[in-house]
Amino acid sequence: MKSRIFFSPDKGNTWEVFETPIVQGTPTSGGYSLDFYDDKHGFIIGGDYTKPEDSKANKAVTKDGGKTWELVAIGQEPGYKSGVRYVPGKNGKELVAIGFTGISYSKDAGNSWEELSKEGFFTLRFLNDSVAYAAGKNRIAKLKFMR
């Protein structure tokens, strides 16, 4: 099992495949979420949900539209996460990652992270640059980011 990116430049008629350095090889490991700030800058996060504390190869960035990826924050928190989103309007510098292990935030494009909460969620969407909604098992939360 590989953690790869599939890209179609023509609405699904043809496909390109790009390898990622994200942990892979088992049915429980790989890239679980991907977001792009623009057509060049993207972030992928994942890991192995059976080893949620492992943070060796679960976060990577691209600067060329997903053709190549570079690991970031190797061995640093957060470990496994199931969702990642760029904060809108922040020049691709701010990210929020979520998972059943909690919520983490980066203000330097994913190079370092801080834990915002231990509350578990599975998905996150931003309304604007200061309000996001997170959903988890039997719950929805509104997150406010003060500027």
Features:
single chain, 4-stranded antiparallel beta sheet, Methylamine Dehydrogenase, Chain H, globular, 43% strand, 147 residues, mainly beta
Short description:
The protein is mostly beta strands. It has one domain (4-144): Methylamine Dehydrogenase, Chain H, CATH 2.130.10.10. It is built from no helices and 13 strands.
* Main pleated-sheet profile: 4 strands, antiparallel
Q: Terminal Cα separation, in Å? A: 42 Å
CATH topology: Methylamine Dehydrogenase, Chain H
* Helix and strand element order: EEEEEEEEEEEEE
Task: Output the CATH class name.
Answer: Mainly Beta
Number of domains: 1
- Low-pLDDT parts are none
Taking Cα atoms only, what radius of gyration do you get, to the nearest Å?
A: 15 Å
For the biggest β-sheet, the strand order reads 3-4-5-6
| Fraction of residues in helix | under 10%
What this model shows, in words?
This protein is mainly beta and 147 residues long. It has a single domain, classed as YVTN repeat-like/Quinoprotein amine dehydrogenase (Methylamine Dehydrogenase, Chain H). The chain is 0% helix and 43% strand. It is globular and about 40 Å long.
